[in-house]
Amino acid sequence: MSEVRSFKKILIANRGEIAVRIIRTCKEMGIQTVAVYSTADKDSLHVRLADESVCVGPALGRDSYLNVQNIIASAEITGADAIHPGYGFLSERAEFVEILQSCEIAFIGPDPYAISKMGDKSEARKTMMAAKVPTVPGSEGIVANPKDGLEVARKCGFPVMIKATAGGGGRGMRLVRTEAEFTELFETASQEALSAFGNGGLYVEKFIVEPRHIEVQVLGDKHGNVIHLGERNCSVQRRNQKLIEESPSPGISEKLRQRICEAGVLVAKSIGYHNAGTVEFLVDKDENFYFMEMNTRLQVEHPVTEMVTGFDLVREQIRVAEGHRLSISQESVRFSGHSIEFRINAEDPDQDFLPSPGKIERLVYPGGLGVRIDSFVSAGDSILPFYDSMVGKLIVHAENREACIKRAKRALAEFEIRGIASTVKLHQKVLESSGFQGGRFSTAFLTNEILKTE
Amino acid sequence: MDMEAFLKEFSQSRYDTVTVGTDGAEVYLRKAPGSLSQIADPIRPSSEPAPSALDSVDERKLIKATRVGLFYPRVKVGDTLEENFIIGQIRAMNIMHEIKAGKAGVVQKILISSGDAVEYGDLLLELEGQA
Predict the structure, then answer these.
(1) What is the ipTM score, two decimals?
(2) Is the sign of the CA dihedral A235, A236, A241, A247 positive or negative?
């Protein structure tokens, strides 16, 4: 584990803005790059920027960017010594990392143990309970009958959620506000789960009222060092899809910031984590926080952390995978100013976020001091229907949140996209709202306050 | 919209795939290859890499790689192939994968030297018309 090597050539097993993002850092580090691409992406920016490229399959992701054999064979024929998975696609597949190990190709990410430990939600919950990280209070597994369920509910305090263990799509799920309605709702939920999934097993969890989504960026090396690079607030979301992320998180006390960042480090240390990872927490109105999940990869919203810390996270990922110790200690991390990221998606917020693929007729990116664009398309390019609808990310940095919001308004006003629908106008609306400006908004904010008034 | 109208709309659209439904109950539809939209679609790039100098050759006479790896041909010019004939092997992850001709004809050109790397869509052989 302590052996240090130097990557000469990295294959990026991804497409779009994140592939471009990774190639940029490789170039600055003097590392050769190999792009892989589907037939639909042959003219895409990541293919043009990379030193070499290999076509790995037809348009659909499962035939190309998820084609493990063709991707590993691409590393073999080009002599790449490491693979960076980006996010999505193969980034959190433990078996992919195991195959790479057997082929002696390095994976720029954590080891398969950490990926599978955090990939299984109940396993992750158990591990965190053992590490004394707060998890959402509730039953340990399935409750046998309404009487046992009610006992658990009393212990965590109402309101509670009854959830089907085999659940999905809201079926077998009930919000219970008072003790009086518990038994009846438990029984209907059980029947519903039984008829929908053939399994009536239920568990009980405390319902977190108006939670905020706050996550901690952690970074570990193979020598047991783990640090955090602060937190990000990602509460502006819709159906668990984040739209705006910022750092530092507004609306929380300095004490909570400290505690939640320390908890993030504890989570990573408890599984011997190395490389970049994100520990997600739910925070309630009284500043209690609960472990939600850990993402064992680089996140879409990593740039806000880069802007406030000045560190290149992809560079750190590569160095850690090479076997180096972290180039920074916790004490040397300095946070400067405020950063907000806006996801510019080819989606129509007026039509329930219907994807809007197609040719981009006109595209003008904003610029100026404190404005960063991570994208991969220009005017004349197309957003393809086979992949996610992201056009790019606008990341703004300024000395404090107020100045950052002003700069973001200025930048969004410069953003011109024609030919496809986009989320630009929605972001402008959020910035104008008193809810966002006030800094204390929950994950229900976008749906309840911004989209409702349409 | 009823199902029939929806399917008609989809089949005439420029999209090849669609997912309908809500969380937990989704249906994924994919058009058969060669359906109308793939020809008419203005935004879908060609599904084949540009064959450059071989532009004039009839597609039906070309055999292309469907795997990435090192190609070892097992045929020579003049050989008569049937669809199931093994034309060679592609080596990937230390495994030799046998490659079938997929079409019949007489080998006119072998476009990859033994042991050279191929990617998805690369031309392997050119056949002489027996179509």
Answers:
(1) 0.84
(2) negative
To the nearest 10°, report the CA torsion of A254, A257, A262, A268: -170
First to last CA, chain B: 45
Question: How close A149 gets to chain B, by Cα (Å)?
Answer: 26
Using a CB–CB cutoff of 8 Å, tell me whether A57 touches chain B: yes
Please state the φ and ψ torsions of residue A87, each to the nearest 5 degrees.
-120, 160
Residue A438, pLDDT above cutoff 90: yes
Residues of A belonging to the active site: 297
**Domain positions in chain B:** 3-40, 52-128
Please state which of the four CATH numbers 3.40.50.1970, 1.10.230.10, 2.40.50.100, 3.40.30.10 is assigned to the domain occupying B52-128: 2.40.50.100
Nearest CA in chain B to A386: B17
Give the model confidence (pLDDT) of A367-399 as tens digits: 999 999 999 999 999 999 999 999 999 999 999
Residues of A in contact with B68 (CB under 8 A): 54-56, 69-71, 73-74, 77
Quick one: tokens of A38? 């589907």
Q: Which residues of A touch B15 (CB under 8 A)?
A: 357, 385
Residue of B nearest to A58 (CA): B47
In chain A the domains, ranked by start, together with CATH numbers, are 9-108 (3.40.50.20), 146-206 (3.30.1490.20), 212-451 (3.30.470.20)
Q: Where are the alpha helices (DSSP H) in A67-168?
A: 68-78, 94-102, 112-119, 121-130, 146-156
How many Cβ atoms from other residues are within 10 Å of residue A294's Cβ?
Answer: 27
The encoded tokens of residue B13 equal: 């659209």
Confidence label for A119 from pLDDT (cuts 50, 70 and 90): confident
Q: Indicate the SS3 state at residue A370.
A: coil
